[in-house]
Amino acid sequence: MSPTSIVLVHAHAIFREGLRHALTHSTEYRIVGEASNGQQAIQLVDYTDPDLVLMETDLPGVNGLEVARAIKRTHPHVGIVLLSASMDGQQVVKAIRAGVAAYQPRNIAPDKLLRVLNQVRHGDYPINDLVLSLPDVAAQVMMAFRQMAVDEDTQSIYSPLSPRELQVLDLVAAGRTNKEIALQLDISNQTVKNHVSSILRKLAVNDRTQAVVYAMRRGWIKVVLPGD
User: Fold this and answer.
1) b vs e for 42-62, b when ≥16 Cβ sit within 10 Å of the residue's Cβ?
2) 5 SS3 class
3) How far apart are CA 63 and CA 77, in angstroms?
4) What is the Cα gyration radius of the chain?
5) What does the angle CA 8 – CA 3 – CA 45 come to, to the nearest 5 degrees?
6) Which of 78, 199, 212, 228 has its CA 20 to 30 A from that of 124?
7) Residue 92: how many other CB atoms lie within 10 Å
8) Which domains, and CATH codes, for the chain?
């Protein structure tokens, strides 16, 4: 298996050096570029088409969340890991809506960072674990999803998704990782990835969050978070 290609984005060279140092000890990653601001990051991703982007939120000019949204529009397959000084619930909600796969504190330990990157490169969304571990964040996510679900008055009963794809999307909405979905449905992890890709293509959306919101608006699935 070839190394996972990754782009590093941080405003300060010394921090990029630290990230680079953490990754060079692993043969599983290949750094294909570095950027110091949002616009550079977008251009670099267009040029290198990496598997992952590791980026801070506080970037000069275009911030990390805006960069994430721009990347997911044109490169929906890219896994994005955001590092932030703030673990504020509203910021986490914005990150989820931008299609971010993981949202971690800026001072994350190198070994934990590698574990998070490993999850994301295998198609998982550690940001779901973050939501479930912080009740106030979970409440804000639920409120945001509910609001998005009622933004459209009309609902379509017809679904272009197969019964299996609806099963997968329902589990995605419940915060399950690809691995957990595979175990629950007794299918392979690759089959789950294939179903997710098919769902995104059929619904003409860029990421899993948009697919969930799209399906909720039409009454195909319902999201229930713990404690709801």
Assistant:
1) bebbeeeebbbbbbbbebeeb
2) strand
3) 20
4) 17
5) 35
6) 228
7) 25
8) 4-132 (3.40.50.2300), 135-217 (3.40.50.2300)
